[in-house]
Amino acid sequence: MSQLGICVIGAGDLGTTHAQNWLKVPDVKLISVADPIEERAKAACEKFGFENWYPDHRQALEQPGIHAVSVAVPEYVHRECSEAAMRKGYNVICEKPISLTIEDAEAMIATRDRTGVKLTFGFCKRFMEQVHTVRDLVQGGRIGRPCVYRFVAGWERRPKMWIMDKRYGGGPIIDFCCHYFDQWGIIFGAKPVRVMAAGMTFSEGAEELPDILPELDTANFTVEYDTGDIGMISITWGLPRGVQTAGFEDLIGPDGAIQVSGAKKVTLKTKDGEEAFEDLDADMHAKQLNAFAESIREGKPVPAGAEDALLALKVSHAVLESVRTGKAVSL
Ligand SMILES: NC(=O)c1ccc[n+]([C@@H]2O[C@H](COP(=O)([O-])OP(=O)(O)OC[C@H]3O[C@@H](n4cnc5c(N)ncnc54)[C@H](O)[C@@H]3O)[C@@H](O)[C@H]2O)c1
User: Fold this and answer.
1) How many other CB atoms are there within 10 angstroms of residue 318's CB atom?
2) pLDDT one-digit tens code per residue, 23-53
3) What burial class does residue 231 get, using C-beta atoms within 10 Å of its C-beta: 0-12 exposed, 13-18 middle, 19+ buried?
4) Residues 142, 256: contact at Cβ < 8 Å?
5) Which of 45, 134, 177, 196 has its CA 20 to 30 A from that of 218?
6) 4-124+285-304 falls under which CATH superfamily?
7) Domain range summary for the chain, segments of one domain joined by +
8) Which atom of ligand 1 is nearest to the CA of 94?
9) In the CATH scheme, what architecture does the domain 126-282+313-330 have?
10) DSSP 8-state symbol, 304
11) Which atom of ligand 1 is nearest to the CA of 81?
12) What per-residue confidence (pLDDT) applies to 208?
């Protein structure tokens, strides 16, 4: 194919991010965009120069000239939209996480295998220089092994309410922590083996969240890896509006520590002093789409495969199960 024809399903925050970044990939043509909120689909069509917009993803997939589809809709429709695209023979990049349920994820993988198309997921942090820097420091033995990656965050109830709902977005453990489950595997070069968690739902009955069935929004947990390394998160999305804690992100090991600051800085701290890595490239979406385009054009492996995305979802479900049962869950 000379030009890669693109359809984008979902014209919210990530759909428009995909559209904008597809324009940075060589030899790409924006064909169609869909969103049931018609003004979003129309606005994206005009702003990014798609040939046409539609309120329904099935109509958008009918337009001729499509080779690849970005699926950027809430989790509960990842399967429906991705499978509709794959059944038409189109390659798919679906936003993370793969889906809400293991059943949906396995069905998507089966559809990929039946149709023979490429299927990848929006684990965009794989393209951040910061993640590569931390990986190289850890795997280079600079802080010793095994080590612990710690992430602590306290955020207000999410203004985008569907994301907190167990029917639509899955709360922070499914929607957000999957980024860490994915990147820990890369940084440690390891597989998760066991999860221990405790948590609660601060938002139960919160007046800011009418008509929402909140998924667990507050959890403290560890994920143990087969290398002995540990990922640890303490997170809440359940604070009242306007309340936020400072949080922190670092790694600690027997020979030192790594401070992770924002998206562009990492500081190595050892007995010999500090070494800062600054102005790291955090422009990840265009690189991700470019890698996906290359995988289609050159027959290379996709950037983040469905099996990795399924594994991240299994860790999320292990956290929820450990909270429910009060027991450690093996993977
Ligand atoms: N990679 C990342 O770092 C990152 C960051 C934020 C969100 N996300 C993911 O992106 C996805 C979308 O999140 P968002 O923040 O863009 O949400 P959003 O609410 O801003 O946008 C979602 C859009 O999808 C539309 N939609 C719903 N069903 C649809 C359908 N069947 N066909 C077409 N459009 C449909 C909605 O009307 C809405 O406009 C989620 O899976 C989320 O987890 C990824």
Assistant:
1) 23
2) 999 999 999 999 999 999 999 999 999 999 9
3) buried
4) yes
5) 134
6) NAD(P)-binding Rossmann-like Domain (3.40.50.720)
7) 4-124+285-304, 126-282+313-330
8) 41
9) 2-Layer Sandwich (3.30)
10) S
11) 31
12) 85
